[in-house]
Amino acid sequence: MDSDKSAIEQPAPQATSRATPALILVTGVTGFLGKVVLEELVRRRNNGTVQFEKLVVLIRQAGGKPPTQRFYDKVVQSPCFKELPPEWHQDIVVVSGDLMEADCGVSPDTLAMLSQQTTHIIHCAGCVGFESSLNVLLAENVTTSANMLGLAQRCAHLQRLVMTSTAYVTPHTNEPIWERLVALPRPADVLLDDLHQGRRDAAEMLAETGHPNKYTLAKCLAEHVVAQKMGRTPVTIVRPSIISASLQHPFPGWIDSFAALAAPISAFALGGLKVLHGDPDAVLDVVPVDAVATCLIDEALGLAKYGSCDLNNMNAQARIAHCVSTTARGPRTRDLVFGTVDYFAQPDNVVLHKPKGCYVGQDDRLFCFYDFFFQYLPVKVAELAALMRLDWTGAARARKTMVRLQQVDTHFRFFVEHTYDYRCEASVLDPDFDKDRYFSVVLMGLRQNMLVPLVAKMQQQHANAADQAEARKDGSAQRGSG
Q1: Which 3 state secondary structure label does DSSP give 125?
Q2: What is d(CA 353, CA 270) in angstroms, rounded to the nearest whole number?
Q3: 99, 219, 420, 460 — which has fewest CB within 10 A?
Q4: Model confidence, pTM
Q5: Partners of 109 in the beta sheet?
C-alpha cells in the first residue's frame, strides 16, 4: 500500500496522516444510500480528494439474475450516476455474496482476495421494511451485521469497518440522546435467544426494551451484537436519522426510494393522505442522503470529525457517530404536512389530485373524525363505485390504497409523536444549511424523480387495462352475433 496523502472536500486535519487505502468493500449499493455512497467514492477519486486502488461491491443474486447483471440494471443504469463519466463503472469489481451466510457467502477465491487486500468496509445493506416480521428484520439486520463483522475479522489489513445503523435505536426520552450504546434491560444475546426460542414474542420484547417498532429494536440489537463480538476490530457505527433526498450530490433532489419521509410526503402529494396523528410542533430530524454518504466515507477513511471514540485506539469500544440534523435544523410536523400540501397544490406541481391536509394532531377523537369522513369514506366510495361497474381491478386498487394509507400512519407515527434531541460532537451539515430551502429541494426531487414517473406508469397501466377490457367486450359481442 503506497503512502500518498489524501485530502477531502472539507478540511480535516486527520487526512494528512492517512495512507492511501488499497481496497474498499461496499455493501448495499443497489439501495438508495448505497448508490450515493458509491457515487461519492467514484467522484471523489476522480477529483483527487480520496485515493484507493480497488473498489469492490458485494451483491447477491436475486430474481434469477446474477450479481453482475443486477449491478448493471440497478446501479449502472441509475440516474444517480449520470454526472459521472460514462466509463465510471468499468474498474469496479462486482463479487457475488449473501450477507445471510457465513463469510457473507463469497466464494473461497473471493474470500482469499478480500482477506488479503481489504482495508476498509462500508456496510450499507439492511432491511428498512417496517411491515416485515421481527424474524425477517433480525435476520436482515442482526445476522447480516454479525456476518459482515466476521468477514472483517478475516481481513489482515483492515483499517476500519463502518456499519450503518439508525439514530432511532434509542427509544424516545426527554433527555438529550448521546453517541453511546443504548442500555438494554438484559444482554442482547439473552434477548435474542428468548426471541429465537419463542420465550418472548415481538410485542413482549418491544414492551421490555421500550422501542416503538420492530425495526428500531432490530437495529439496536445489531449494534450490541457487533459491540460484543468486535474484539480488537476497528468498528464505527454511524447512526443516520431520517434519510431523505440529496442536498447537492449527485445532484440536488436525487431520491429513488419511497421509504421513510418519502412515504407520507408522497401520500399527501397524491391526494390520498389527509390526516396525520402526531404532535404538530414535534421536530423531525431529517438529513440529506449525501451528508450520510460523506459521513460513512469519512468515517471509513479516517477523515471524520464526528463521533465519540478515538480512531487510533485499537482497544476502544465501537466508535458511534450520529448523522443527524438536530432540533435546530429539522422541520416541524405541521411544516411537513402543510408545506407538502401547499407545494403540490400549485397548478404546475399537481401530480395526480390536488392535495388537501385536513388534520394534524394528537386528539384521538378529532383524528378519527377527520380520518373517517375525509380519508376512509372517499376511498370506500371509490371501491363501491368500482364494484358497481364490475371493475374488480379498480375495487382492488381502492382497497390497496386504504391499506397503504393506514401503513403510512402506523409506520411514521413514532417519528412525529415526539421530538428526539440528538447530540453529536460535530455537525454533518454545513453552518449555512437552510432547513426551509432543503425541504423545498426534497419536495422538488420527490416530485421529479419518483411521483411523476409513478403516475405516468399508473396511467399507462390503466390505459392498457381499459384497452384489454374493450377488446374482451368486442370479442364477446362478436361471439354473440355469430
Answers
A1: coil
A2: 6
A3: 460
A4: 0.90
A5: none
Domain ranges of the chain: 13-260+285-323, 333-420+434-481
Label residues 225-258 b or e (16+ Cβ within 10 Å = b): bbbeebeebbbbbbbbbbbbbbbebbebbbbbbb
Distance CA 93, CA 105 (A): 16
Strand, helix or coil at 470?
A: helix
Cell 482495508 belongs to which residue? 119
Cell 378519527 -> residue: 368
Q: Which three cell numbers stand for residue 223?
A: 449494534
Q: Is the peptide bond before 250 cis (omega within 30 degrees of 0)?
A: yes
Tell me which residue has cell 471514540: 309
286 class by beta-carbon count within 10 Å (0-12 exposed, 13-18 middle, 19+ buried): buried
DSSP letter string, 298-318: HHHHT-----SS-TT-TTSPP
Distance CA(245)–CA(45), nearest Å, equals: 23
In 3-state terms, what secondary structure has residue 283?
strand
Distance CA 279, CA 276 (A): 9
Neighbours of 3 (CB within 10 A): 7
| Coil, helix or strand at residue 59 | strand
Cell of 363: 386528539
List the pLDDT tens digit at each of the 482 positions of the chain: 333 333 333 333 333 335 556 899 999 999 999 999 999 999 999 999 999 999 999 999 998 999 999 999 999 999 999 999 999 999 999 999 999 999 999 999 999 999 999 999 999 988 777 778 899 999 999 999 999 999 999 999 999 999 999 999 999 999 999 999 999 999 999 999 999 999 999 999 999 999 999 999 999 999 999 999 999 999 999 999 999 999 999 999 999 999 889 999 999 999 999 999 999 999 999 999 999 999 999 999 988 764 444 444 444 578 999 999 999 999 999 999 999 999 999 999 999 889 988 899 999 999 999 999 999 999 999 999 999 988 888 899 999 999 999 888 888 888 899 999 999 988 899 999 999 999 999 999 999 999 999 999 888 877 777 777 677 666 666 666 65
Instruction: Check: CB of residue 351 under 8 Å from CB of residue 455.
Output: yes
Structure letter (DSSP) for residue 65: B
Is the separation of the CB atoms in 275 and 370 below 8 Å? Answer: yes
Q: What CATH class has 13-260+285-323?
A: alpha beta
User: In 10 A of CB 106, how many CB atoms?
Assistant: 20
Q: What values do phi and psi take at 58, rounded to 5?
A: -100, 120
